[in-house]
Design goal:
CATH superfamily of the largest domain: Type II secretion system (T2SS), domain F
Strand order of the largest sheet: 2-1-3
Largest sheet: 3 strands, antiparallel
Structural class: mainly alpha
Helix content: over 70%
CATH topology of the largest domain: Receptor-associated Protein
Number of strands: 3
Shape: flat
Radius of gyration: 30 Å
Number of domains: 3
Distance between the termini: 109 Å
CATH class of the largest domain: Mainly Alpha
Number of helices: 16
Order of helices and strands: HEEHEHHHHHHHHHHHHHH
């Protein structure tokens, strides 16, 4: 009965807290200077009373209007979560009470959706929830791994230390993701620019030359005729080309989301792709090592940690391999042996893991592996960027130059006969 009563009281407390409304207020301080701000309260009268308690003379207190298109705001990005993690870690380490820390961080958010989310987390904590329970209400932004780390910190009484580790982890992961996006952006940009330049030439430049050639009445060289035929096709069926391109992209994205076999096939093909595949492989290894090292250091059981790590690698192939390793470790195999069976981990990673297991410093060895591959990713992306700059010029030069030469061949031929 006592437990049920306590539960009901906590539920009632949470319900009452969730009914708070945000008010915009304008007040005069002791010097007569106008001050503005916002405050959460049950009603306007309580806001005025609080302002008077702070030595201010309230002028206007109004309920904060909702945005025209709702108060959801833009989506919460992983970078926002990384910044929040560093902020809450810093405040907790400085001795700021958790509820006050959330109130300060939420007040500084420009994204209404994230602000509301942090406010709800704060209200849940005020209502009696632990931090990992409150964060678990938003599994998209705060995934199972994040909540497990926070729970481990709460259980061990070292929440501020774990939050600092989580903040560093999120920052490292976002840094790797940014590098991968940069690496994939350049090839996509080369293809897009080459395609757009080709379309402009075929649609607007070639028809002008085509009229000139028609009036001249001379036989056209094969390259010139090919360019003209391509121009006629693009002019007649540009809409079909557009539908095919958009349809292919949509079909690829949908198939990748709905079919695990296709997603696995696509991921394996990307890992085998020259240069890009090597970057993706090193990124997956860095994420695996960093994530497993953080969870192991926080005191999360190894098997449970590997279950969460599988989804953090950013690769379906490596995720499946880690789940296979988890099953092997669960029946008593050493992790380095399970790792070797997958055939996806370099010998250096296996040997470092074996040394870590033997010496009892697995987390330390994993961090060294993560640092090595993070540096490799950085160097590979920088090298790729340097190589692609001249490659872009070569590709565009071949496409544009080839078309221009094809169009001028008949002119050169006519000039030679004069």
């Amino acid at each position: 009965m006592a437990t049920a009563t306590a539960t009901n009281n906590v539920g009632a407390s949470r319900a009452s807290v969730s009914k708070l409304t945000v008010y915009d207020w304008v007040a005069l301080d002791k010097r007569g200077k106008k001050m503005k701000g916002e405050m959460q309260s049950k009603n306007a009268s309580l806001v005025k009373a609080e302002l008077r308690r702070q030595g201010m003379n309230p002028q206007t207190v109004r309920e904060k209007p909702k945005p025209l298109f709702g108060s959801t705001g833009s989506r919460v990005k992983p970078r926002d979560v990384a910044i929040f993690s560093r902020q809450i870690a810093t405040m907790m380490a400085s001795g700021v009470p958790m509820v006050q820390a959330f109130e300060i961080i939420a007040g500084g958010q420009r994204n209404p959706r994230f602000k509301n989310m942090l406010t709800e987390v704060k209200q849940s904590i005020e209502g009696g929830s632990t931090l990992h329970e409150a964060l678990g209400q938003f599994p998209i932004q705060f995934d199972e791994l994040y909540c497990n780390l926070v729970q481990a910190g709460e259980s061990a009484g070292v929440l501020d230390t774990v939050l600092d580790t989580v903040a560093t982890y999120k920052e490292r992961m976002e840094g790797i993701k940014a590098k991968i996006k940069k690496a994939l952006f350049y090839p996509a940009m080369v293809m897009a620019v080459a395609f757009l330049v080709s379309m402009v030439i075929l649609l607007f430049v070639v028809p002008v030359f085509q009229d000139v050639f028609k009036n001249a009445g001379a036989a056209l060289p094969a390259p010139t005729q090919m360019v003209i035929n391509a121009s006629k096709f693009v002019q007649a069926y540009w809409w079909l080309i557009l539908i095919v391109i958009i349809g292919s992209i949509v079909a690829l994205v949908m198939a990748n989301k709905r079919s695990r076999k296709f997603a696995h096939f696509l991921d394996r093909m990307l890992l085998r792709f020259p240069i890009i595949g090597n970057i993706l492989r090193q990124s997956a290894l860095a994420r695996f090592a960093r994530t497993l090292g953080v969870t192991f250091q926080a005191g999360v059981p190894l098997v449970e940690a590997m279950d969460a790590v599988a989804g953090a690698t950013g690769s379906i192939v490596y995720g499946d391999a880690i789940r296979q390793m988890r099953d092997d470790v669960a029946v008593g195999h050493q992790m380095q042996l399970a790792m070797r069976q997958t055939g996806l981990f370099p010998n250096m990673v296996v040997q470092m893991t074996a040394i870590g297991e033997e010496s009892g410093a697995l987390d330390s060895m994993l961090f060294k592996v993560a640092e090595f591959y993070e540096e490799e990713v950085n160097n590979a992306v920088d090298t790729l960027s340097t190589l692609l700059e001249p490659l872009i010029m070569v590709v565009l030069g071949v496409i544009v130059g080839g078309m221009v030469i094809s169009l001028y061949l008949p002119i050169f031929k006519l000039a030679g006969t004069v």
